[in-house]
Amino acid sequence: MRRFVCLLGLLVLVKYGVAQKADSTIKGPTFVAVDGLVDSSFSISNANLDRFTITEGKNIPVTGPKGDVKYTISSFKGILLTEILSKAKISLAKEKDRGKYVVVVTASDGYTVSFTYNELMFAAAGKNTYLLFEEDGKPIDKSGPFIVLCTSDLITGPRHVKWVKEITVKKID
Ligand SMILES: Nc1nc2c(c(=O)[nH]1)N[C@H]1C(S)=C(S)[C@@H](COP(=O)(O)O)O[C@H]1N2
Ligand SMILES: [Mo]
After folding, report:
1. Residue 32: is its pLDDT beyond 70?
2. What is the pLDDT of residues 158-171, one digit of tens each?
3. Atom of ligand 1 nearest to the CA of 64
4. Which residue of 13, 46, 76, 166 is most buried, as measured by CB atoms within 10 A?
5. Which amino acid residue places its CA nearest to atom 6 of ligand 1?
6. Which of the 8 DSSP states describes residue 103?
């Protein structure tokens, strides 16, 4: 009996130790809050990704301000930001105020990026901005678990957001 208890204790320790190790590779929040001027706020985590249409992409260079390629994302899985926003439903008080609405993406380290309503609805960024949750066939570890990236940006580094925490819809004055 004592042996059994010892073994059980060991198993628990091993399992706990492994779980700790797996968690320590994740730097950012495990869920992304979608909120602000929307009809319904919600959060996205690994547990509810199946609510969304998943898109795949490949060979995306992440470039610095001078065009230098820092690295290339060879493949990714993600959700279009517009798909997320269409579920949340941005509430425009007046249609012609659309130009005053912005979608602000923030990370746990304070890094912040914004997309305007008009560019997401009517320009290339709308079809190319994703919340990524997988890179190279695996969950994103050191920059994740969630990244926002606009693949149509001429320089992709600045609007590449690691450790995404929140996607908020705001209105400027
Ligand atoms: N959360 C967060 N995301 C970030 C940054 C940051 O400091 N914090 N740096 C940005 C910059 S300056 C670049 S060029 C790209 C690529 O940076 P990396 O090489 O650190 O991945 O990520 C961007 N995303
Ligand atoms: Mo950068």
Report:
1. yes
2. 999 999 999 999 99
3. 14
4. 76
5. 111
6. E
d(C-alpha 134, C-alpha 9), whole Å: 34
- Give the residue, out of 161, 165, 166, with the most ligand 1 atoms within 8 A of its beta carbon, to mutate for a pocket test: 161
> Which of helix, strand or coil describes residue 4?
helix
Handedness of CA 140, 42, 95, 98 (dihedral sign): negative
Using the predicted structure, report yes or no on whether residue 172 has a pLDDT greater than 70. Answer: yes
Phi-psi region of 65 (alpha: psi -120 to 50; beta: other; left: phi over 0): alpha
CA angle 38, 159, 100 (to 5 degrees): 40
**Ligand 1 pocket by Cβ (under 6 Å):** 62, 64, 70, 107, 109, 111, 143, 157, 160-163
47 CA distance to ligand 2 middle (Å): 31
- Contact of 88 with 169, CB cutoff 8 Å: yes
- Please tell me the distance from the alpha carbon of residue 59 to that of residue 4, in angstroms, as a whole number: 52
